[in-house]
Amino acid sequence: MAGKDNYNMCICGVGGQGIIKTSVIIGEAAMNQGFNVVLSEIHGMSQREGSVSTELRIGDFEGSILPDHSADMLLSFEPIEIVRALNKANKDTKLVFNTHPIIPSSGDKPYPNTNNLISILEENYNYVLPIDGNQLAIDAGNIVSLNMVLLGAVTADDNFPISKESVIDAMKNNLKPQFHELNIKAIESGYQWIKG
Description:
Blueprint: E1 7-14, H1 19-32, E2 37-39, E3 43-44, E4 51-58, E5 73-76, H2 79-84, E6 94-98, H3 114-124, E7 127-131, H4 133-140, H5 146-155, H6 164-174, H7 180-195
Parallel strand pairs: 1-5, 5-6, 6-7
Antiparallel strand pairs: 1-4, 2-4, 3-4
Helix pairs in contact: 1-6, 4-5, 4-7, 5-7, 6-7
């Protein structure tokens, strides 16, 4: 496990969920706290329904690509996308993921049962943190705040090197003022979900 000064993170999901914006906010918050940050290029298609992932390295790293099994955290906006990213995980990686599936309109295979998926992950990984991000975003006021719910969830992890306050400041710098209140509520709800 990396120390607080070196942290590897993979963020994944489906196009249109706010993965890129989330990565930018985390990166800016990290820089505001004095960390070096390397953000990988976006992998995949950012169009709706395409898989998207970014890799963030916080600390003294030269390369932007996470070696396999080196992630301190996987943050996934969609259940199947966490499975796609498991090559970056080890047994102690924190697996934070939204439990609400996005079933591809073009898919001809049945979508796996999310509860079964959670059980399999729990058998193989020490820190499996599913979160009903969609419901928390709706409860906060709008489904579009899903990425802020998940952002709040990651700040609740004691090993995450960036404070919730820094994340909120970076959010305010990247999103329109009329959405600040909604997004703060969403961040707080994700934070409280993980803190329990």
